[in-house]
Every structure is written in structure tokens, then in C-alpha cells.
Design brief:
Blueprint (H helix, E strand, L loop, with lengths): L3 H17 L8 H29 L10 H13 L5 H12 L3 H7 L6 H27 L9 H4 L4 H4 L5 H19 L4 E3 L6 H6 L1 H15 L3 E6 L2 E7 L2 E7 L4 E8 L11 H16 L5
Parallel strand pairs: 1-2
Antiparallel strand pairs: 2-3, 3-4, 4-5
Length: 291
């Protein structure tokens, strides 16, 4: 599908970058801003495709995939980057090359055969991977969301994290956390460790993630968490609300409450939040003053 607005915006950025020189972003702030803008448009498009593919995998037949940002920006991205960014280039190109007429035809009808579902899951996985590689490149370039400030890393209590929430929602989250901690103590809740499931599943195999979460719910209902980074666990309060915590089995430490929208609300908590939780845990362990 073509989005003329997105395509035109990316084409303009690509044209301006070309005038300055495709490699000029390495030393020129304006050129770098153009390249970053192109990549962010492509990432937004990938994220929309990710949501559509996930919905299709979950039985929706009213989904579409976009390529406008890629079509308008790919030549500039390819000309600007070099061999050191080969992983990013390959990830983007592979994700979009996987979008074929056959893929779009399958998205318009129920996935009645295993091979149809497998194809959608394959494109879904490649799309998520490409978005993740753009995140990594942006962070390496110093323009991503990976840098944490002192404020980000300050430890906050549950009450502080819920400040400003409606009262009934505050009470609901408080109760869920208390119930989970109590269930851990009597072995009625379970904390899945990283070594119990392949970490590749977390961010690169969304189809396996769906199956793994379903199995965990069948065994433990909502009383389970997943270790998403060494020492950092994610607990679902709802699809869009997660608690990140650390600490020991007997003394879990709540670190953050994350609200998610879009493609994130049915998948693993994005890594930027996990990094922030890790930083807060380290702050607390150092005994630094609380926020």
C-alpha cells in the first residue's frame, strides 16, 4: 500500500540529504538529522506493519502492509551507510523484501493452513527485527532512547509511580502487586528465568512468544513473571500495564510501572524500559537517595 503523505515526507528528507552529501551525516548535524528522520519514518512504518501482522496472526482479515517510507528512503539509507551498518541494511531490506503479493493476499483471508500462519509469522519476525536494528543504530549514533538521565535512574516507591493515576486504578495495581508477592512466598506464583526459554523468543520470535505466554497462563493464570534481562522481571497487570521488578525470590523489589500502547501492548516490554528498571535497581542497591 502507498501512503502519499509519508512517501512525500521521506522523499523530501532524502532529497535534502543528497544535496548535502549522503556521507555528510558523519560530520554535519543537519545531514545527520535528515538521515535520522528517514530512519525514524521507516521504523514507524515497520511498527505499523508489525501490528498488522500480529493482528493477522491472531485471525484479523482487515490488515494491510505499507512500503511508502521504505520505497522513498531506501536508496538514501543505502548510500549513506557503510559496511559497519551491514546488519541494519540487511535487516531492513530483508523485512521489506518478504512483503510479497502472496503475503498480502494471505492477510486478506483467514489463515486456515499451518504454512500460511508460518509465512505471516516469518514476515512478522523480520519486521520486528528490522525495527530493533534501527533502535540499535539510533542509540549508537547518540540519538536513540538508550541514554538514561539521573532522573530516569532514581528509585521510586509504588505510591510515587502511581501518582496521578485514578484512585481505583491505583488500588487495583497495589492489590495485584501484593497478591503476586504473597503468592510467591507460598509458591503459588512463578518467576520464569531466562534460561527456561530461549532469549531469541523475547524479541525475534513473536509467534513463539504467543505460544509461550499462553502456556504460562494455563499453568499459573496471571501469577507469573518473565525474566526479560538478567535480574529484571516483567509482570503483566494487563496487556498494556506491566510491572518491572528485581530482587530475590523472597524479597522482590518493584522498579517501574509501564503503560504500553500500539505494537508493544501485547508483546515484551520494550528494552528501553528494562534498561531503566536495571538502572533504578542499581541505584537502590547503592543506597542512593530516593526520588
Amino acid at each position: 500500500m502507498t501512503d502519499p503523505v509519508t512517501g512525500a515526507a521521506v522523499a523530501k528528507l532524502a532529497l535534502e540529504l543528497g544535496k548535502l552529501g549522503y556521507k555528510a551525516w558523519k560530520s554535519d548535524a543537519k545531514a545527520k538529522a535528515h538521515l535520522v528522520g528517514i530512519l525514524m519514518h521507516v521504523q514507524d512504518e515497520l511498527n505499523r506493519n508489525y501490528t498488522s501482522l500480529r493482528n493477522c496472526y491472531n485471525a484479523s482479515t482487515n490488515e494491510r502492509l505499507e512500503k511508502a517510507a521504505y520505497d522513498a528512503g531506501w536508496d538514501a539509507i543505502f548510500a549513506a551507510l557503510d559496511d559497519s551498518s551491514a546488519g541494519l541494511l540487511d535487516a531492513i531490506r530483508t523485512a521489506y523484501q518478504a512483503i510479497t503479493r502472496g503475503t498480502e493476499d494471505r492477510m486478506a483471508r483467514p489463515l486456515t493452513e499451518n504454512r500460511d500462519a508460518a509465512e505471516i509469522a516469518h514476515v512478522w519476525r523480520l519486521t520486528g527485527r528490522a525495527s530493533y536494528e534501527i533502535d540499535r543504530w539510533l542509540e549508537d549514533a547518540g540519538v536513540g532512547s538508550g541514554k538514561l538521565s539521573e532522573t530516569d535512574c532514581k528509585y521510586r516507591t509504588l505510591g510515587e509511580l502511581l501518582g496521578g493515576w485514578p484512585k481505583d486504578e491505583q488500588l487495583s495495581v497495589h492489590k495485584k502487586w501484593r497478591d503476586f508477592v504473597a503468592a510467591l512466598k507460598i509458591r503459588k506464583a512463578y518467576r520464569y528465568r531466562l534460561d527456561e526459554f530461549a532469549t531469541v523468543t523475547m524479541y525475534e520470535r513473536p509467534d513463539q512468544e504467543v505460544e509461550f505466554r499462553a502456556d504460562a497462563r494455563e499453568k499459573w493464570d496471571w501469577l507469573h513473571s518473565f525474566e526479560v534481562q538478567d535480574g529484571i522481571h516483567e509482570l503483566w497487570i494487563s496487556a498494556g500495564t506491566r510491572i518491572l521488578f528485581g530482587g530475590t525470590e523472597s524479597a522482590p523489589v518493584l522498579l517501574d510501572i509501564v503503560e504500553l500502547i500500539g505494537r508493544d501492548d501485547e508483546s515484551w516490554c520494550p528494552k528501553r524500559y528494562v534498561r531503566r528498571a536495571r538502572c533504578r535497581l542499581e541505584t537502590r542497591q547503592r543506597g542512593a537517595p530516593r526520588a
